[in-house]
Amino acid sequence: MPIVFSERLRASLAPPRYMALPLSGIDLSTSGVKAVRLSESPHGLILAKYIEARLQAGAFTDGEIVDRAAVTRALESAAEATGISSANVALPESKSYLFETSAPGSNKLEQRISIEQRLDGFIPLPPQETAFDFVEVGRNENGDALVAGVGFARRIVEETLSTFDEACINVCALEGETFASARALLPHGDDSTVLIIDVGKTTTKLSIVTHRIPRFATTINIGGHALTLAVQKYFGVTEEEARRVKSERGIVPTPGNEEYLEAMLSTVSAIRDEISRHLAFWQERAARGGAHEAVSRAIIAGGNASVRGFTEYLESSLQIPVTTGDVFTNFASRDIWVPTLDYSESLAYATAIGLALRDRITTYA
Description:
single chain; 365 residues; Nucleotidyltransferase, domain 5; 17 strands
């Protein structure tokens, strides 16, 4: 099925908007399927339904659907629990290719043709096997559009669409997960340059966004589960007990906690070092001048973002303010509405919520 973008990956045969259930997002990841449905209230958006349908190990790995039957069952379960029949759906960051270039032309079609002619210089795939789109981020001295683009292998797109078809879920739009999470975590109209750190179960995703548009993204193959395993090995306890200890103790220095902390830091320092390396490269490039601004702050999200002491640990190394995110930034005021979803748990829903917000916030301005 051919696809096109319009500020997001979009299925060309998607149902008309009046037929689609709006404000719904589904995020498929290694740990499972997260689905949300939002609704309008007199005071703004609220979270109407949410669910996580867990996946067995190996069903979805490295951005690939491995056990299609298991993924389909999880999608069906999540859709039934939330009342979703149509949704915006995430494509994995680990399978995406971000690029920046200039594109001559008086309209987007002419710009697209210009980019297609040079596509193999940006994406290491044959052009005929690539689906891509772009958004304008400025103009150069010649008046040509400066664009930020993203591409995916068509097979990833087609496999995702066909799996959702099998689960009887209409795909309204396909979007890279870094675009969606930025929309959830940053206020509409935010023009700052921010590092978003998404700490998942098996990976940590980094994206640097300006005007909420990803300009850099990468995936580190270490996630929160590695911390759980470090605790499990140190104490000789079950995985469930290790998750509890990790949550309670975190990486906060306390008297008598030295050996435990050393075991934890041997893992978390690997994540920190990778983040520091990528951030330093960006900051140095920004300091030399050019198209990019320096990162002003970092936001942590993801299922393992709330580990005690993690923000302070990173802040001391990255030398920029680091905070945990708020996925309800663009929702009704908390003075009027209080989410039923626990704050720590909500951090795992940034991508799903950002996808649902696409129907409400339709531009990157």
